[in-house]
Write a structure and sequence with these properties.
This protein is mostly helical. The chain has helices spanning 2-20, 29-43, 49-69, 78-100, 107-114, 120-127, 135-159, 172-187, 195-215, 218-221, 223-237, 244-282, 289-306, 317-322, 341-369, 375-395, 406-419.
Length: 432
């Protein structure tokens, strides 16, 4: 037992060196800053999503400085430029829509919210300064650690009688999206030869699912089977160091425990949906979560039909939707979006906005697919599919973009997916 404990302590000491660099201060400061930023970005989303925005903004500012002073070159490949352009078209369309559609309101605030989508131009050259194969495993490990900490935070909230866990996100639905995405990313570390990293991978995935269940985010439940298909594809091509029997037993026990802990939230959310369906059948005018969404969808579709080309601008989003609804319903719909990312883009910028959104959602897959064949390409495709499926499925029933946590996460992961060459092999973070 003492030997095992000593081994774990040695691992975390080595992990500290892997993230922060040698204790004697030698090494590349830009590479060290990359490692710290990537590791922190992976850990923090569920604990305090505001820090992710800060990390992305700081990375962008530092990228501008490094490019301006010649410390970095804009060494983007043709594939990188396709991705960066695809990411940039969406915010450019939205900015154009803001100025095409008066009345104007908080234009600078809306433009500032769109800045994360331009970040690939600035942070990808910086990420490329680190050796191939260093940042992606660090992010995957950080996602596992972050999910474990976030689950413990969420569990405390449920113990203290919060109906739905939010952790540090201030929004239960946001926790569900982060839990299913980062838990899925964490599980990719099962292929690590280090036993500690394997355990963090399994615990991180289970913790991510726990966050999904404790948050009661029903749309995130729909993502789980899609992610399982992605895992089956990826791990069929890449072996992992756990035996199937060990993985099955450990996974089953963890899943049973997580379901037991989250059973109250699961039953409550199922009963709430059944109640909403019953109310919808009565047609007595009562507004529930489900009927509010249906009303928003109808209002959005009606508004888009009236101005399908350019939309109304994000500053006029809800006013244009509510104008299509009966007067008695409007006061009961105090939302900032229509609970569907595609309809929201259509309201903001018409069919051009929807097309720009679809192109942006394709960029991580394009960036991964265009790499040369190899393990680096496979893990990039897995990351891209986990990312896009999480956003598309949950965003079809809730918020997708124009959110201070989800926008930086998407942009940062797109850059990370593009960072390594396709031939790069997967290696553990602690290699000693």
């Amino acid at each position: 037992m003492g030997t095992v404990r000593t081994g774990k302590l040695n691992y975390f000491r080595q992990l500290k060196i892997a993230v922060l660099g040698p204790e004697n201060g030698t090494g590349d400061s830009l590479d060290r800053n990359n490692r710290i930023a990537v590791f922190a970005f992976a850990i923090l989303p569920g604990l305090s999503s505001n820090f992710n925005s800060f990390i992305l903004l700081a990375s962008m500012v530092w990228g501008i400085y490094c490019l301006a002073t010649g410390r970095l070159a804009l060494n983007l490949s043709r594939s990188d430029r396709l991705v960066a352009i695809g990411m940039s078209i969406y915010p450019l369309v939205m900015i154009a829509s803001i100025f095409i559609n008066p009345p104007y309101s908080e234009e600078l605030d809306w433009i500032f919210r769109l800045l994360p989508f331009f970040s690939v131009w600035l942070i990808l050259p910086r990420m490329r300064h680190s050796p191939d194969g260093r940042l992606v495993p660090l992010f995957i490990l950080g996602a596992g650690i972050g999910m474990i900490l976030t689950f413990l935070f969420s569990l405390l909230q449920i113990i203290f009688l919060m109906p739905r866990a939010e952790a540090g996100t201030s929004n239960a639905a946001l926790l569900g999206v982060i839990g299913v995405l980062f838990g899925g990313i964490a599980l990719l570390n099962v292929q690590s030869p280090r036993s500690v990293e394997q355990r963090i991978a399994i615990l991180g995935y289970a913790a991510g699912l726990g966050c999904v269940l404790l948050s009661g985010t029903r749309s995130a439940w729909l993502v789980i089977p899609v992610h399982i298909v992605i895992f089956l594809w990826y791990f069929r091509k890449h072996s992992f160091h756990l035996s199937l029997r060990s993985l099955a037993i450990t996974g089953s026990l963890l899943l049973a425990g997580i379901v037991a802990l989250g059973s109250g939230q699961i039953l409550d959310r199922i009963q709430a949906l059944q109640g909403d369906l019953t109310t919808l059948e009565r047609s007595d005018g009562e507004i529930t979560s489900l009927s509010a969404r249906i009303a928003l969808y109808k209002g959005a579709l009606s508004a888009i039909r009236k101005d399908p080309l350019t939309g109304y601008g994000p500053q006029n989003r809800m006013a244009s939707v509510l104008a299509e609804l009966p007067d008695n319903i409007r006061p009961q719909l105090p939302f900032s979006h229509v609970h569907n990312g595609f309809l929201t883009a259509g309201i903001d910028a018409g069919v051009i906005g929807i097309a720009a959104l679809c192109l942006m959602l394709m960029t991580p897959v394009i960036g991964a697919w265009r790499k040369e064949a190899g393990p680096g390409r496979d893990i990039s495709i897995a990351l891209a599919l986990l990312l896009v499926s999480s956003y598309v499925i949950t965003g079809s029933f809730g918020i997708m973009f124009n959110q201070k946590a989800l926008d930086p996460i998407f942009a940062y992961l797109v850059a990370l997916i593009c960072a390594d060459r396709g031939s790069t092999g997967f290696a553990p973070v602690v290699r000693g």
